[in-house]
Write a structure and sequence with these properties.
The protein is built from 5 helices and no strands. The chain is mainly α. α1 packs antiparallel against α2, α1 packs antiparallel against α4 and α4 runs antiparallel to α5.
């Protein structure tokens, strides 16, 4: 990865993968309060993707809208895991792990490749994703956090 647009598209790709994974879990869940929590996080990821796309386009870059092969593989693996047979706890664990790894990777890309203006765009997104980890941790611990 050389250009900041490549890096931002890689982070955008992570948002699209997160959207697919949250959507797959929401589709498999019956529990309405857990679904509501996950839907709120899903909505944040959709907003992040929109913000990143807007920034890339308005600053002269080209948005790679699809998640590419990595996204297709993640989607395929998520759906193959027979989510309906997974407990809500297992789903939360999987979402937490994905959110944690995705955020760590995005922060690392940001630190290594982006200038201060680009990092500023990502700041609120990263802050919300840290909040997602806290919410998922609360769901994992059985204490439902309210937004």
């Amino acid at each position: 990865m050389k250009t900041s647009f490549e890096v931002l598209n890689k982070i955008l790709q992570g948002e699209h993968i997160a959207i697919e994974q949250y959507q797959a879990c929401i589709d498999a869940l019956q529990d309405s309060s857990l679904r509501n929590h996950l839907t709120a996080i899903l909505t944040d990821h959709k907003n992040h993707a929109t913000r990143l796309s807007y920034y890339i386009q308005t600053n002269g870059g080209n948005v790679e809208e699809s998640t590419g092969i990595a996204g297709l593989m993640a989607d395929w693996k998520t759906r193959l895991m027979n989510l309906k047979e997974k407990s809500p706890e297992e789903m939360i664990e999987r979402l937490y792990s994905g959110e944690d790894k995705g955020l760590a990777r995005a922060v690392q890309y940001s630190e290594h490749y982006l200038n201060s203006a680009e990092k500023e765009v990502l700041g609120p997104i990263f802050a919300e994703e840290h909040d997602h980890l806290k919410q998922l941790q609360g769901l994992r611990d059985g204490t439902y956090l309210h937004h």
